[in-house]
Amino acid sequence: MSITLENKQCLVAGDGVLPVRMAQYAKENGYEVICISLAKDNVHELKKHCSKVYSCHPGEVNKIESILKEEQIKQLTFLGKVHKKVLLQLHKFDKRAVELIKEASRLNDDQVMLMIVEELGKIGVEVLDQTIFIKNLMIPAGVLGKHKPTESQMSDVNYGFWLAKEMGKLDVGQSVVIKDKMIMAVEAIEGTDVCIKRGAKLAKGEAVVVKVAKPKQDKRFDIPAIGMKTLRTMKHYHASLIAVEANETIIVDQEKVVKYADEHNIVIMAV
User: What is the mean pLDDT of the chain?
Assistant: First the structure.
């Protein structure tokens, strides 16, 4: 189904490079971007591409809705990392946010985001597919870079892919760490990088990381993504391979990521 894009777009930005890339692309293609920043690390870069940048805590629902109404926003894209541990900081949430959380039967990723999408719909705001402005960052199947997987590594990739998909059905996480067909770590609230750290330390070298989209992934939120931080974590804790799901995963700064993997003997592939 094709979507008619409004000239004025809102970006709700978490941490990382990805929101900056979206804002840059949108601006270069004639869109005005209003940003609601939920993080701090990329605000300087976002200001280069957005006509306005508002800073909010993720729990300031009333403030965020007021901005959307004031700016007459009709379409919105969520991009960037907002750490799940923010849900443990209810003292920073406004009354409306606390009410929404209490209404939820579970605070897993999909339920929280669908609840937010529903709330935005009530004020006439459509949440867009995260990839609309950054489809060029999605990667096809194949090995990236010069290092190829061994037969043993491919066995771990296949097992890890199946396991990650099963965990995705439960909306637990997107990433697993495997060594010799044994589960070293499964991603939960901590996020991919900490999962890699935990699993690779247990593996004591040669760990295989697999990251996939959830079955029936809702592309409005939580599209799998990796970047330089992921690779640096792998290098530091001696993980040897990362496999992501082809045509479902974003690699931010792909050229830099592949160059770094080549330099540090890391296999990077999409399956």
Answer: 93
Of 127, 150, 174, the residue at which a domain comes to its end is 127
The mean per-residue pLDDT over the stretch 97-103 comes to 83
Task: Give the total number of structural domains in the chain.
Answer: 2
∠ Cα 218 184 222 (to 5°):
15
State how far the Cα of 79 lies from the Cα of 131, in Å rounded to an integer. Answer: 9
**Residue 20, token pair as written in the block:** 């900056």
Q: Tokens standing for 76? A: 């919105």
For residue 2, is it within any domain? no
- Give the number of other CB atoms < 10 A from CB of residue 139: 20
Is the same domain home to 144 and 265?
Answer: yes
Give the pLDDT confidence of 7-54 residue by residue, as tens digits.
999 999 999 999 999 999 999 999 999 999 998 889 999 999 999 999
End-to-end distance of the chain based on CA atoms, in angstroms?
Answer: 26
- The CATH code of the domain that includes 222 is 3.40.140.80
Answer yes or no: are the C-beta atoms of 92 and 57 closer than 8 Å: yes
Outline where DSSP puts E strands in the chain.
8-13, 32-37, 52-55, 75-79, 126-127, 142-144, 175-179, 182-186, 207-211, 225-226, 239-244, 250-251, 267-270
Please, which pLDDT band fits residue 1 given cuts at 50, 70 and 90?
low
**Alpha helix (H) residue ranges in 3-104:** 18-28, 43-46, 61-70, 95-103
pLDDT tops 90 at residue 114: no
